[in-house]
Amino acid sequence: MKLSVLLTTLLGLNSLVSAQENNGSSDKELAIVVEYEVAECKYKTKNGDTVSVHYTGELEDGVVFDSSLPRQRPIQFTLGSGQVIKGWEEGLLDMCVGEKRKLIIPPHLAYGKRGAGGVIPPDATLIFYTELVEIENIPKDEL
C-alpha cells in the first residue's frame, strides 16, 4: 500500500513537471553567453546608465533582421528605462565596455505574441550579438 501511494505521488510530480516544461516559451529564461571578456573592468553597467551598444539581431533560423554594424552607429539608450526589450534590459546589466555577449531572448522578454514590424514573427526567440561600446558620463579611469 505504501509503495502504491509513493508511486502515485511520484507519477503525479512527474506529470506536473512535464506540464510545466511543455507550457510554452514563456517558461524559458534569458541565456547570456559572454563571448569576449575584457581583462580589467572597474565599472559594470547598471540601471540608469546611458549606454551605446553595437548589435546584430537574428531569428533562430539565422536570418538577420537588424544590425547597427552596417550603419556604423551603435544604439544608445538608458538601461532600466524601458526603451528596449526586457531581454536587453536584463542581458546587458553588469557588462564592461568592450565586452561582447550573445543574448538568447525568449519571446516573453522580446516581442511576445505580437511580433514586430513584419520582420519578427509572433512568439519568436531572438538572438542578439552585442558589444558594449560606451557608458556615458563615466570617467575613463573608472572604466
UniProtKB/TrEMBL annotation:
It catalyses: [protein]-peptidylproline (omega=180) = [protein]-peptidylproline (omega=0). Keywords: Isomerase, Rotamase, Signal. Pfam families: FKBP_C. Residues 48-136 form the PPIase FKBP-type domain. One of its GO terms (molecular function) is peptidyl-prolyl cis-trans isomerase activity. Residues 1-19 form the signal peptide. InterPro entries: FKBP2/11, PPIase_dom_sf, PPIase_FKBP_dom. GO terms for cellular component: endoplasmic reticulum. Its EC number is 5.2.1.8. Belongs to the FKBP-type PPIase family. FKBP2 subfamily. This is peptidylprolyl isomerase.
